[in-house]
Design a protein that fits this description.
This protein is mainly beta and 239 residues long. The chain folds into 2 domains: 3-23 and 37-128 and 228-237, Thrombin, subunit H (Beta Barrel); 134-226, Thrombin, subunit H. Helices cover 6% and strands 39% of the residues. It has helices at residues 172-177, 229-237, and strands at residues 3-4, 8-11, 19-22, 29-30, 39-45, 51-60, 63-66, 74-79, 89-98, 112-116, 142-147, 162-167, 180-183, 196-199, 204-214, 217-224. The strands form 3 sheets. Strands 1, 4, 11, 12, 13, 14, 15 and 16 form an 8-stranded antiparallel beta sheet that branches. A 6-stranded antiparallel barrel has the order 5-6-7-10-9-8. It has a two-stranded antiparallel sheet with strand order 2-3. The chain is globular and about 40 Å long. It starts with a strand and ends with a helix. GO terms for molecular function: serine-type endopeptidase activity.
Length: 239
């Protein structure tokens, strides 16, 4: 069984001045600054007021998508971020919407939508990404994941946004669980929860959900966006 992405310990830049948690991009490289203007860092305020972090991405000027298992007491999002030390826009979340069929026992339909308290100002550094829909349901090939996490098992969190290319596989287990999967030593290891799987047509196809160690490798699991597009559209069009 997959475990949901554990959140790796990191230190935020001086502007945050606290310990936090986020994911890892293993085997990747630094993204061109602000080349992925949809990327969002989601701050989670837990019940005990502990601060943790997930990834996310802007899908409309007032909605962010992330993983359902990133649900917390409250959330805030950082927009237009490349380096932690940069000036950035921080917006509070008005309401969180878990997928109607999310199952926390096996992390199926692991998607959550965050309604922002104010609309994001769309600039060259802050811009929504298009979502794959039912017409894009066939298995995409060349895709990318990105995030601010560790670049190796023993490193600290990356100061800058990292990205890595992944190739999706037609794995029997993944077909059975109706998720996208990639495999290998390159990918969103242990904590890039909520980050987007973006494929060659520039659309977001999946949400980073889980990883599983296999013999000499790692299997990465992404919740399929096309299968949830009706629910997504219903939420953003009525809220």
């Amino acid at each position: 069984m997959f475990n949901h992405c554990s959140l790796a310990l990191l230190m935020l830049a001086m502007t945050l001045q606290r310990q936090a948690y986020a994911g890892k991009i293993i085997g990747g490289h630094e993204a061109k600054p602000h080349s992925r203007p949809y990327m969002v860092l989601v701050e989670l305020i837990k019940e005990n007021n502990e601060i943790k972090y997930c990834g996310g991405f802007l899908i409309r000027d007032d909605f962010v998508m992330t993983a359902a298992h990133c649900k917390a007491k409250s959330h805030k999002v950082f927009l237009g971020l490349h380096k932690y030390s940069e000036n950035h826009k921080k917006v509070s979340v008005k309401e969180a919407f878990l997928h109607e069929n999310y199952d926390k026992t096996d992390f199926t339909n692991d998607i959550m939508l965050l309604k922002l308290s104010e609309k994001a100002e769309i600039t060259k550094n802050v811009e929504p990404i298009a979502l794959a829909d039912k017409e894009d349901s066939s298995l995409p090939n060349s895709c990318t994941v990105s995030g601010w996490g560790k670049t190796s098992e023993n490193s600290n969190m990356s100061e800058t946004l990292m990205e890595a290319s992944v190739t999706l596989i037609d794995n029997e287990l993944c077909v059975k669980e109706n998720v996208y999967c990639s495999e290998g030593e390159i990918g969103p290891m242990g904590g890039d929860s909520g980050d987007p799987l973006v494929c060659k047509d520039g659309k977001a196809y999946g949400v980073v959900a889980a990883s599983k160690k296999t013999e000499g490798s790692t299997l990465y699991k992404y919740t399929k966006i096309p299968d949830s597009i009706d629910w997504i559209n219903s939420i953003i069009n009525h809220n």
